[in-house]
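CORE FACILITY INTAKE
Project code: CF-77B
Contact: R.S. (postdoc)
Sample description: multi-component assembly, five entities in total
Requested service: structural model of the whole complex
Turnaround: standard
Below are the sequence entries exactly as provided by the requester. Do not edit them.
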Amino acid sequence: MKAIKFLVSACVAFLLYLLLTTASGSLFLWSREELIIGAVFAIIVGMVTKDMVVKKSLRMLDPRRALLFVAYFFAVFLPAMAIANVDVVYRVITGRINPGIVKISPNLGNDLSLTLLANSITLTPGTLSVEVDEKTNDLYVHWINVKKQALEKMPRDYKAVCGSFPDWARRIAG
Amino acid sequence: MMSKIVRTMCNILVPLIFVFGLYVIMHGHITPGGGFQGGAVFASGVAFIIVAFGSANVQKRLKEHHLSVLESGGGLIFIGLAFGGLATIFFFNFLVGSPIFGHIPPSGANPGDLWTGGVIPLMNIGVGLKVLAGLSAIVLVMALVSSGIEVEE
Amino acid sequence: MTDSGILHVIIPVLIVTCAVFVARFKDLIYAALALAGLSLLLALEFYLLQAPDVAIAEAAIGAAITIAIFVLAIRSTRRT
Amino acid sequence: MNSIVYTFIVIGCFFNLVGSIGLHRFPDIYTRLHAATKCTTFGSIFLVAAVMIQSVGTWGTEGMSSPQSVLTLHAFIALVCIVLTNPTSAHAIARAAHRSGVKPARAVVDDLEGDRHD
Amino acid sequence: MWLPVAVFLGVCILICLVRLILGPKAPSRIVGLDTINTLVVVSMVVLGAAFEQVIFLDVAIVYALLSFVTTLYIAKYIEKGKF
């Protein structure tokens, strides 16, 4: 397991280095010297960060998850972000707000999907993640336009606050 | 220790910061940057880990004497390279023309060849080691002291 | 006046404003915040003057490490 | 090609301006964070995308291993850094503000206030 | 074509700086600083395109990564956490 951790983080570092030094060679995209130096640096960074890149399992190496993430980013996330910005422009001009902090239970198991969900709802309409419960993975969300029917029962319905983002987060990183 | 989201983000961003710091150190002679700047970027990555995970957790993995050894090593590399050219003159660039970093760049505008510069890239590495270890040690020790943990002499 | 000339007026004015408020704020953390803004804009000015080398040094030292050390030092003081 | 670049520039500038004005229009820190984070991230995406589109347009004349392709890639890396760091810093600021005792202004509900254990 | 955009972003930075100076408490001031961070990174990218200097964009990447560290330090100070 330790060797696999090191290998994965070294590969990540090598890919990042190659991304930074693209078009350094004339014949190929990378010159031979860059590849040698990049390998040395990848070994160093892989040794330093091997416990940070890979946590428990290697499920994020599945290419289907990357494809799903790209599809999510362009088909779901960017339109929602455009709506969010038009919404903010409307509220900046009129100054009409009805804010509150609500608690939602998305039932996500691991940290990466929770991070994806929290960052997504920060950038999408009317919501901002304020606090996360360390034990139960509940999110506290500042909601700029609180709807009355969402406040009736105590485990708030996350459909009303952030739509289908928790399902996507579970599918991508869950 | 900060919240779960910041910690996960730290895990994602720190390899990027480290690779970028090493890139700035290595390309000091053809792009902006150099040993000092790259070392400072790398040390900022260490500062990021300290603020995200707490200095007590960092101290379990990274002791002050490791950083001390790194800093002294960087200084020794620099001085050794400076004395290496003493056969001709102090700080003589004796690696030009040799297989290590020995290419002589063509005159005029060119995209930049990494394998040039002689001892300059190696000296950048020495300076970078010294700066990254020194600045990381400063931030780590100050964080430990401000949270009331004993620091080894 | 060219556009680049206007930028060379705007950015130094912002830098001087920040510097004045660094000196005038009574609370130390406010002064540290204004100092962070100052080093940000100073790096932008170095960038405008075609000195990316200095700009990277200012970015790494002035924005991240200096503010981190200042905040840690302010944390160790006691508020009266 | 040029008209797309100009459209993107106008959109990006508009949202950046709205984000800056929103800092003054809203009453408390949480709503200000809404304006600052969302609008500046969206505006930055459009401005950097304009830079990338313009430099991609010169690939055909200058070839793949020209400086322009490096410009495109590095602008893309800067954009990724902005998109990754901006919401996280917004979350950190909001959390710090709530822990230091800033109440949301004109709030109709505050679940977090009762649930704090520490 | 890119320099007017940079001037416009400078005006936006001026507006945010007013919030950095006026803001009643420390959290409001950080919001202003965070906005300035993003705007400065974007104007660096735009100026790199304006000067047609590829190597300048490295500065923007450094800034985008490191201004985040500053924000985290000040946020942690405000929430009175242990470093």
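Facility notes:
- Residues 3-75 of chain C form one domain.
- The mean pLDDT of chain C is 86.
Invoice: internal transfer
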